[in-house]
Amino acid sequence: MAIKKTTQILSFFFLLSSKIFLGGFTMAENTTSTFDVGVVLDMDSLAGKMALSSISIALSDFYVTHSFYKTRLVLHTRDSKQDVIGAASAAIDLIQNVEVQAIIGPQTSAQAKFMADLGNTIQVPIISFSATSPSLSSARTPYFVRTTQNDSSQAKPITAIIQAFGWKSVVPIYEDTEYGKDILPYLIEALQKNDTRIPYRSVIPPLASDDQILKELYKLMTMQTRVFVVHMATSLASRLFLKAEELGMMNEEYVWILTDGLSNALSSMDSSVIGLMQGALGIRAYVPISKELSDFRVKWSRKFHQDNPKIEITKPSVFELQAYDTVFALAMAVEEVGRTDSHFLKPISSKISDDFATIGVSQTGPKLLQAILNSRFKGLIGDFALIDGQLQSSAFQILNLIGDAGREIGFWTPTFGISRKLQVTSPSRNLTSKANLGTIIWPGDSTIVPKGWVIPTNGKKLRIGVPVKDGFSEFVKVVWDPSTNSTAVTGYCIDVFKAVIEILPYAVPYEFVPFQNANGTSAGTYNDLIYQVYLQNYDAVVGDTTIIANRSMYVDFTLPFTESGVSMLVPVIDKRKSAWIFLKPLSMGLWFTTGAFFIFTGFVIWVLEHRINDDFRGKPANHLGMILWFSFSTLVFALKEKVVSNYARFVVIIWVFVVLIITSSYTANLTSMLTVQRLQPKALSKNHECVGYQKGSFVLGLLKQLGYDESFLKVYNSPEEFDGALSNGSQKGGVCAVFDEVPYLDLLLARYCGKYTMVGPTYKTDGFGFAFPRGSLLARDISRAILNVTQGDRMTRITQAWFGRQTSCSDFPKSSSNSLSLDSFWGLFVIAMVSTVSALLIFSTRFFYNHRYLWRQINPETSLWQKIVIMGRQFDKKETESRITPMVVSSNFKASPNNNTPASSPNISNLTEGAFTPMDDEYISAHSGSLIHEMSNSVLELSTIGSGRPSTSSIINEGA
């Protein structure tokens, strides 16, 4: 009985303790509060099913590790049915009926855009781990939180890849949705900074038929660009690559770059599609390897295959990792905020539908949003941190699609650019170099880097437009060849183009198409021809087309292959051919001053010398001659006359120094005029004289800009017309100058090297170049080839073949040598000839007049030459006698030494004209002093007659 009571008592205490324990546990359970969260996904899509498995695992894992949390997320899933309206309906249902405080999802950017506006209105955070469109931003919709990367972050790594391989043209292929289009502005901006063009944008609707996809791919095949950036959903991308393979676009000449969305979804794509995409490049946000990531992949694979046994997926994508971290971030934010008693208090904005009129604005929303944005933890994707309402990624993987998945070949980071390994302390090579990447297998199993463009594969030759002109055929000449029934195009520019095409590393089929009318004349100006390329009537223009700014707005030019600039050609005046050039070195005033000083100096010397110097005496005429002779003889320093006076010597010294300076200056200035300053262009009076230009040239517009009146401008076609117009001059219906480009003027100078000269200023242009359509990739290779041709011997041979060795003249014609011609001095020779002939005529006249009696004594039958010879001999004999006789008298008029008796008295009458031939006045004047002295001695001797000296007659006879 006692035992029974004891047993009953123990049972009572056990039951009491059990109730107390169980009651306490129940109360502990009741202390946790629930937090309603909506989940909007495309439940029928593969991505939706993969994300749902990740969210379920995340919720379970979080509360296993955070069992002490007082809040519990309660998920309410809805199917968006892969439609914007379906997603909107699901969100409205969650808000009205469940009153969720936050919504995870939706998957697409188009769905998220509507839900973000709704969440912003009722202050309910919308958290998406897969909506990547840049149009969704926290600035516009603060309650939209993106736990993934913005698509705009891909623009820089994609551009870095393109820059590393030197591709200059890219075509984006994207789907016609918010997701597809919103990345384009950021991609274009990044590419343009890298000088990369986007010549075309390939837009494909999400529900496009196979025929639409094929039509778009055919269009891409006819273009030059072979680098494509693919940005679309996996379903559309699978169909795109299937058709690309059918058209042969997955070979070695194509480059396919996949954006982050496709690269992350490779694991969810069919293996057969992956096999078609071999060789493509891709980028995706870098996810660090960790134990937690490995464990999650195992659990996810088990969970997903349990829920979807018919789908073969081996591992989750980055979006599943982001969905997992999103749940963790929301759960921690909810725990921080806690549960509130009131959910929606304020009346909703009138902007929302009347269906929400009874719903207020969430009171928990602002606190919850702030808690989510402040979340910091280490998740599966690495460090989880939201900046400006979205997840930031500091690194991207660069993949090469080989086998069943992408093979890592490098990384891109904002700090170090492209690198082979992620851990980079300091860049040692170019940040955009392809050498920083691993080995790449390109489409078609090629290891050769595609050049990124080709000649269009439409089977047609390039239509090369060439100008048709009447003159300057050395540059371009179009001739109809009746033997071949075709048009032959030749010329300097054509040969340069052919030489450039020959050295390209690939074949370029082309044909020349003259820009002409049916009658063979030119169809327009050079601007019209260039515009035909813009209109796509020609694929290029080859000829003497000048690179100028307004033309470059419509076409792309290659590098120039000729000299640049527009200059002026004018006739020249050769001053060496002036008859009076010898007068130019000194001014007229200096000439008169110098002449006056010559006369004045001669007069001063005569005044100082004529009293004491016999050389300055004589007849008045002799005095005047001495004045002029002495001063002018100082020019050659030939002073034969002695200067006796010291005053005169001083004057002569000073004057010789002055003459030295004047003659030296004269010689130097004359030498400069005859050698250096040989040519001078004619002066050009703007708008008063006519100038010429070439037909069809842009020079006409330049002349108008320079202020030339169009009425004074004349157009010409050929060098011959230019020469004729310049020769006639503006006064005779021609022109006084020609404006044209330097290559044309060089040709004119080569033909007419002695007639014209090129004068400045030179107006800047870029020379001749070949024109191609805007963005043409062929133009870049042509430019590189032009450099090789112009810097080699080939260009020299082409130039000599069309222009000869004298390709240009300098400003001074080559025909003018440094030797001085008779033209420069014929004036001096005329003066000398006139002076000489005048002196000869005066002398001859006086000679024949003074000896006219001898002319009458000569036989009339004697020839004229013989008469002149005879008269000359008689004149010489008489002159000799007149000079010698007086000297004999003075020297021999002495007494005989053998007879002391003076000789018989001379007969004074015998000392007449017969005994003493009269002497010249000049002789007497010059020797008057000595003659008087001798005459005095002779008189003394004659007075001693009879002292044994010889008689005068005998002396005279002896002298004779």
From TrEMBL:
Keywords: Glycoprotein, Ion channel, Ion transport, Ligand-gated ion channel, Membrane, Receptor, Signal, Transmembrane, Transmembrane helix, Transport
Pfam families the UniProt entry points to: ANF_receptor, Lig_chan, Lig_chan-Glu_bd
Subunit structure: May form heteromers.
Organism: Kingdonia uniflora
Location of region: Disordered: 891-911
InterPro entries from the UniProt entry: ANF_lig-bd_rcpt, GABAb_receptor_plant_PBP1, Glu/Gly-bd, GPCR_3, Ionotropic_Glu_rcpt, Iontro_rcpt_C, Iontropic_Glu_rcpt_pln, Peripla_BP_I
Annotated protein name in UniProt: Glutamate receptor
Subcellular localization: Membrane
Membrane topology: Multi-pass membrane protein
Top-level taxon of the source organism: Eukaryota
Residue stretches spanning the membrane: 586-608, 620-638, 650-668, 825-849
